[in-house]
């Protein structure tokens, strides 16, 4: 199975970057499935029905989430009716939505997608992501060999630990949230693809996707300046994963970084 995971899509620049590249990527890479982290798609924080529908229409199959899951009130009702929109699975029972979804490709292959939120410097009151992963995998249908985990977490050590903890039990663990791509993509000893952070899909002429001047005021003047999405060309960041449909192991993992206005150079980089 050929899978593309797209890192945190931030506001309009991120959605534009997806629009600029995804159709070509689906064709050139023969993608079976596309998953994107969408917690920042609506104005940089949260999800709306309109922005989620935009990504679905562009060719994204499943949307994962994070700590901004509920920033837009309409997400509470929307997530009840849209199973392709996940929220972190370690929220308590009774929270709208689910953090587990099984996607089926046109060829009939099935992929379990698990969305988890970190505890360290994030949401310590939520259930332990390690135990939550154990429970989700224990209830996984036996015929589902491939599982992708989006671990939305702050610290690299917690992400590293979950990757090692799940090595050999899931196909890939991809980290999101920090909006800064890491260069440690690899296949762990027991066959699980891993990267600490996929990076964001948004405007990199910014501070993690937000307007630079407004962000600097928060750091320097200590004023409660409102964050605003940076305006400028977007960059699509993600990872391409090649998963074995029979064993669930990851055969290959490749980082991806494609600027909105550089389709020719992007195609050249992919060919390298």
Give me a quick take on this structure.
This protein is of the alpha/beta class.
What are the SSEs and their pairings?
Layout: E1 2-6, H1 11-28, E2 33-37, H2 49-58, E3 62-64, H3 74-81, E4 100-104, E5 110-117, H4 129-138, E6 146-152, H5 156-166, E7 172-176, E8 186-187, E9 193-195, H6 212-220, E10 235-243, E11 250-259, H7 263-271
Parallel strand pairs: 1-2, 2-3, 5-6, 6-7, 7-9
Antiparallel strand pairs: 1-10, 4-5, 8-9, 10-11
Helix pairs in contact: 1-2
CATH topology: Purple Acid Phosphatase, chain A, domain 2
Structurally, the number of domains stands at 1
SS summary, helix count: 7
Strand content: 15-25%
Q: Indicate the percent of residues in helices.
A: 25-40%
**Spans with pLDDT under 50 lasting ≥5 residues?**
263-272
Average pLDDT level: 94
Q: Please give the CATH architecture.
A: 4-Layer Sandwich
- Spell the H/E element sequence: EHEHEHEEHEHEEEHEEH
Q: What is the 3D form?
A: globular
Widest sheet: strand ordering: 4-5-6-7-9-8
Number of strands: 11
Overall structural class, as computed from helix and strand content, comes to alpha/beta
Task: Calculate the terminal CA-CA distance, rounded to whole Å.
Answer: 21 Å
Which value, in Å, is the CA radius of gyration? Answer: 17 Å
Pfam families: YmdB
Family: Belongs to the YmdB-like family.
Binding site for Fe cation 2: 39, 67, 152, 177
Binding site for Fe cation 1: 8, 39-40, 179
């Amino acid at each position: 199975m050929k899978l593309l995971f797209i890192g945190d899509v931030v506001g309009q620049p991120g959605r534009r970057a997806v629009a600029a590249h995804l159709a070509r990527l689906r064709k050139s890479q023969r993608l079976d499935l596309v998953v994107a982290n969408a917690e920042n798609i609506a104005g940089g924080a949260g999800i709306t029905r309109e922005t989620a529908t935009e990504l679905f229409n562009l060719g994204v199959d499943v949307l994962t989430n994070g700590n901004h899951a509920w920033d837009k009130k309409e997400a509470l009702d929307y997530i009840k009716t849209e199973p392709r929109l996940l929220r972190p699975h370690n929220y308590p029972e009774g929270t709208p939505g689910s953090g587990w979804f099984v996607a089926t490709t046109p060829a009939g292959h099935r992929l379990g997608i698990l969305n988890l939120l970190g505890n360290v410097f994030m949401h310590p009151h939520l259930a332990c992501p390690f135990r939550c992963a154990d429970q989700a995998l224990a209830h996984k249908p036996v015929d589902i060999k491939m599982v992708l985990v989006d671990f939305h977490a702050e610290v690299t050590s917690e992400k590293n630990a979950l990757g090692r903890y799940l090595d050999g039990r899931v196909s890939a663990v991809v980290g999101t949230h920090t909006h800064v791509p890491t260069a440690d993509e690899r296949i762990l000893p027991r066959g699980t693809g891993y990267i600490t952070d996929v990076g964001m899909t948004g405007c990199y002429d910014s501070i993690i996707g937000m307007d630079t001047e407004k962000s600097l005021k928060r750091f320097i003047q200590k004023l409660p300046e409102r964050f605003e999405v940076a305006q400028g060309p977007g960059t699509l960041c993600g990872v391409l994963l090649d998963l074995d449909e029979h064993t669930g192991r990851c055969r290959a993992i490749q980082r991806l970084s494609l600027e909105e206005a550089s389709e020719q150079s992007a195609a050249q980089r992919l060919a390298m």
